[in-house]
From TrEMBL:
GO biological process terms held by the UniProt record: cellular respiration
Domain Pyruvate ferredoxin oxidoreductase beta subunit C-terminal positions: 201-258
Keyword Lyase recorded: no
Keyword Zinc: no
Source organism of the structure: Candidatus Lloydbacteria bacterium RIFCSPHIGHO2_01_FULL_49_22
Matches recorded under InterPro entries: 2-oxoacid:Fd_oxidoreductase, PFO_beta_C, THDP-binding, TPP_enzyme_TPP-bd
GO molecular function: oxidoreductase activity, acting on the aldehyde or oxo group of donors, iron-sulfur protein as acceptor; thiamine pyrophosphate binding
Alphabetical keyword list: Oxidoreductase
Sequence ranges assigned to domain Thiamine pyrophosphate enzyme TPP-binding in this UniProt record: 50-197
Top-level taxon: Bacteria
SUPFAM superfamilies reported in the protein's UniProt record: Thiamin diphosphate-binding fold (THDP-binding) (SSF52518)
Entries under Gene3D superfamilies matching the protein: 3.40.50.970
Protein's UniProt name: 2-oxoglutarate synthase
Length: 258
């Protein structure tokens, strides 16, 4: 079986943008899940908010819905509630879901809605040319922080564990194979699956060199069912950025209880 997930739309991301790698990882993840019989192509619905990340829908030959800024999550929750047989994925940005539409993210986790949320986290509002978001690091200089940000960034993984998400992961867009595998695990998981995807914006906040030097993967023995261990594993004292599946437990989903 060979899926035709590409479209005729011309890619309009900046040449070399890591969003391309997220797109390819997702297409491959869906293809492999369909080939193994775990998923049916016609049963997938993807949504996105507004931003560079949202263009991903133009390049996916599947059922898609482009929501308002920060509103991909309620759109996809509605789709899932109306037809729980569907597999739903919301692509969102850090501006879209950690700033603009944050409460939707929190409440989807609180409900353990059986949705997948993949955040293209470039630590800025990229499409509008580089304003600070909730994950911009302290000292970040951009259009809205000309003298450097004085705020500490939020930790989206800890926030989602606190809110009740039952699958919490982080990956790096440049690590295609690992990103694909984490996406497959997220889609297979029953309940709220959340992946923060570090996605350098090569035009307005190029963090590729930082990630090249500072990524570390969770050790083999990491216990994904231990919330306390998962919470503490998101940060390391040496400043390295841990990646992988931090937390995963099975609890009743919103749709099962509805
Ligand atoms: C309600 C609303 N507020 C603001 C905007 C303007 N706007 C369009 S794209 C965008 C930035 C999106 O940033 P992010 O969600 O981080 O996605 P990225 O472009 O970084 O992928 C903004 C602020 C909008 N379209 N709608």
């Amino acid at each position: 079986m060979s899926l035709q997930l590409g479209t005729y739309a011309k890619i309009s991301w900046c040449p070399g943008c890591p969003n391309n790698q997220i797109l390819v990882a997702f297409r491959k993840a869906v293809t492999e899940l369909c080939e193994s019989g775990a998923l049916k192509e016609e049963n997938i619905v993807a949504a996105a908010g507004i931003g560079c990340h949202a263009k991903i829908l133009d390049y996916l030959n599947m059922n898609t819905f482009n929501a308002l800024h920060g509103r991909a999550i309620p759109a996809i929750e509605g789709v899932k509630a109306a037809n729980p047989a569907l597999t739903v994925v919301a692509f969102s940005g850090d501006g879209d879901s950690y700033s603009e539409g944050l409460t939707h993210l929190i409440h989807a986790a609180q409900r353990n809605s059986d949705i997948n949320v993949f955040i293209h986290d470039n630590q800025i509002f990229a499409l509008t040319t580089g304003q600070a978001t909730a994950t911009s690091p302290k000292g970040f200089k951009g259009l809205t922080r000309p003298s450097g940000s004085i705020e500490e960034p939020i930790d989206p993984l800890r926030m989602m564990m606190n809110a009740g998400a039952t699958f919490v992961a982080r990956t790096y867009a440049g690590e295609f194979e690992k990103t694909k595998e984490i996406m497959k695990a997220a889609i297979a998981h029953k309940g709220m699956s959340f992946i923060d995807i570090a996605q350098p914006c090569i035009t307005f906040f190029d963090t590729r060199d930082f990630y090249k030097d500072n990524i570390t993967w969770l050790p083999e023995g990491h216990n994904v069912t231990d919330l306390d261990a998962a919470y503490h594993a998101t940060k390391q004292s040496d400043g390295k950025i841990p990646m992988g599946i931090f937390y995963q437990v099975e609890t009743p989903t919103f749709e099962q209880q509805l």
